[in-house]
Structures
1.
Amino acid sequence: MIDKHDNNSLGEQMLQLKERKLIVEYGKKLVSYGLIRGTGGNLSIYNREEGLISISPSGTDYLKTKPGDIPVLDINNKIIEGKRKPSSELDMHMVFYNHREDINAIVHTHSVFATTLACLKREIPPVHYLVGFAGNRVGCAEYATFGTKELAENAFRSMAGRKAVLLANHGLLAAGADLKQAFNIAEIIEFCAEVYYRTQCTGDPSVLSDEEMDLVMEKFKTYGQAGAKA
């Protein structure tokens, strides 16, 4: 008999196989892109049509993680498939899936420059136009112990109307319509955090106006290759 939880079982026996493979793929990218250290950080995907969430397991080496290690839960936090314990930040993912219909994937990192600013309890202003991928600026949520509902609520409030937020003394949370977009925002905001940090070290950074950021964010709505003809 095939155990559907066994990593050696046939792939078609697994629920959310596509999403679980993506979690594994992008978990490795978190490491290779230097956005996390060790087993820190987490990522998830919400399949709204099926009402199922795939999320990285708690305290697991991303380079050794397999699709069968990824737990699958329903929107009420009930584990539907998988033997591994979900990420300790499950509540922080769920609060967005329950209350933000524009968000179907979340990436949480401990990237160096974003975390540096988070430990200074500073937001990231629009020092570079690429901040616009997340919103007109990236705020900083009040500190709360990791893995708590309080942290989830703080992050949710501080990310209102945006796609990224710093978590005080902790790291960065980025979100998107899919995992590719959420990861891209996490990577871009880390770049913007580094630019902001370095400009502060050398002088008084020039910050773009709200009007310019409104224009930038409008242009980003049609940025990329979506809908392009061959």
2.
Amino acid sequence: MLLKRERELVVEYCRKLSEHRLTRGTGGNISALDRESGLFAISPSGMDYFEMNPEDVVVLNINGAKVEGDRKPSSETEMHRLLYERREDINAVVHTHSTFAATMACLGRDLPAVHYLIGYAGGDSVRCTPYAPFGSAELAEIARDGMEGRYAVLLGNHGLLAAGPDMRYAFDAAEEIEFVCELYWRAKCVGDPAILDGEQMGEVMEKFRTYGQKGRA
């Protein structure tokens, strides 16, 4: 079986989407790239995550052609593929419909640095893109552009797209940006939250370089 480890990761983290309440039902999708072979594994379209097995995960090449797997790949395959094609620093992609990120996306608002953990996105804000139909080439291109220089982007009237050098980082980014979205929403219910400035976030990003056991956040 091609990309056995990547397929196992897709199954594991798709289940975590539900367990961590980052999506409902079969919403969202996850993929993992093996950059050496140029192949990536992506979750199948509309399949219950707790019934999914590694064999159900679809393997495609960097051009989007199916290489292995009987299932129909995620409707957002092109969104994942474009990131892998254009970003050498991205090897995993996590797309969620988490409540507070989707709320921000429905408001059409960028997420400012209301909390330092926004640094997981790789900067001092997370952009919100204009709306485009799900599964469309237009959405894939808008998402790619909105994530430029970042590891997360809010998809207008849709949800959250997060990415990273590995699956753990991509998933952590999705979870932390959801947390910051919730903080921003709750703070706005009371008043105007204080926003960290560029200098403060610069210090955060420098600390992130040496944080944790592997030298990164």
3.
Amino acid sequence: MKRTIERVFQGAPDHWVGDGFHVSNYFPAATDFEKRMSPFFLLDYQRPEKYEPTTLKRGVGTHPHRGFETVTIAYQGSVAHHDSAGNGGVINPGEVQWMTAGGGILHNEYHEEKFAKAGGILHMIQIWVNLPKKDKLAAPKYQALTDASIKEAKLAGGKGVVRVISGAYEETEGPASTFTPAHMLDLRLKPGAKARLPTPKDYNTALLVLQGKVSANGSPAVSEGEFVLFKNDGDEVVVDALSEAIVMFLSGAPIEEPLVHYGPFVMNSVDEINQAVEDYNNGKFGYLKD
């Protein structure tokens, strides 16, 4: 049974994160959205935007996180990451950085040096994935998902592919290991493509159109920058491409626990937030030079 569309909306007005990411927040900025997309907690979208060449570091300096994971997906441009657990790397177009903050980590994110010097288009998404209470203090870890490691399922008639970042699509499984079941699918569609995306009825489910126009479960055209939230009343989403299109599809098992959010910390109680702040101030998240 196809899911009913609950609402279609654009993200909040663009704002700067540091001096390198000009993003629109889709959730939790939307009204009553703090848990509506659980286990996904936040989605920031950097629309395609040209950055002029520079020799300066451009991005977000060293900052802490605890209690969740950050997932950064690059479509154009390159971003470098370093963290206090000793991990580092560069994501290029088609690649993903999946960082588990867990019990506490410091990290920074900058335009990759060669990209910054040359300038160019940056197009990316960052998604925060909440962790269940039992895993909130897990050891930090880092998954670098290269373009080659992300498997593709071909659609009928050669009309496109479904790139599976996490979870599964039909028989194709994604390379990311997750603490909670979460399907994160990157659809690259040609005009006339049809993608049938099955998902359990209780999973919170949505899609974001990054390029082109599509119809979702028979809807009128949904265009670039529009986010479609589905009701939990069916077990399938059907995406029909009305033009060449790129779509991010999210569907995950909700975490039915209390949630308290304060800046870079996502925990279950105010006491845990206070403890996170105290631990950060006492240097327990490690050390990282900017």
